[in-house]
Amino acid sequence: EEIQPIKESWNFVTELSGSSYKTTETFSIRGSKWRYTWECDEDTKFAKGFGLMNILVYPEGEGESYVSEVFMGKCTDQQISYVYEGKKNYYFDVGAANVNNWIIKVEDYY
User: Fold this and answer.
1) Is residue 106 within 8 Å of residue 31, measured between CB atoms?
2) CA distance readout (Å), 2 to 5, 6, 56
3) What are the 10-residue block averages of pLDDT along the chain, 110 residues in total?
4) How many whole angstroms separate alpha carbon 41 and alpha carbon 33?
């Protein structure tokens, strides 16, 4: 009987949330690529379309060179980003304006 190789797939790692600026706790990536999806609930008290997120992804111990960025992402934007490196720990530096809350979900491919 032929042994089938284990099929790689997306695996849930963590879900992070906040309501404004936040540096998240670190999380560990096993595979050589991973992705994160983000969403935000826009605060429409003053106007619609101004809920924005800035997301920077850093390897643990690094504060200068980020590996992925979402710049002025609107709450209505396409909200998935891929990172083509891994096998280490990472964290997010998140900025949010005019949002009630935000969520980032991380998935690892291995």
Assistant:
1) no
2) 9, 12, 44
3) 84 97 97 96 86 96 94 88 97 96 97
4) 28
Residue 93, both tokens: 């530096």
Whether residue 25 contacts residue 92, with contact meaning beta carbons closer than 8 Å, is answered with no
Q: Residue 21 gets which letter from DSSP?
A: -
Residue 81 DSSP symbol: E
Q: How far apart are alpha carbons 34 and 2 in whole angstroms?
A: 30
In Å, how far are 9, 11, 50, 84 from 53, measured between CA atoms? Answer: 28, 25, 10, 22
Distance, CA of 32 to chain centre: 16
The amino acid sitting at 88 is K
Distances in whole angstroms, Cα of residue 18 to Cα of each of 11, 15, 21, 95, 102: 22, 11, 8, 10, 5
102: how many CB neighbours lie within 10 A of its CB?
23
Compute the distance between CA of residue 83 and CA of residue 80 in angstroms, rounded to an integer: 10
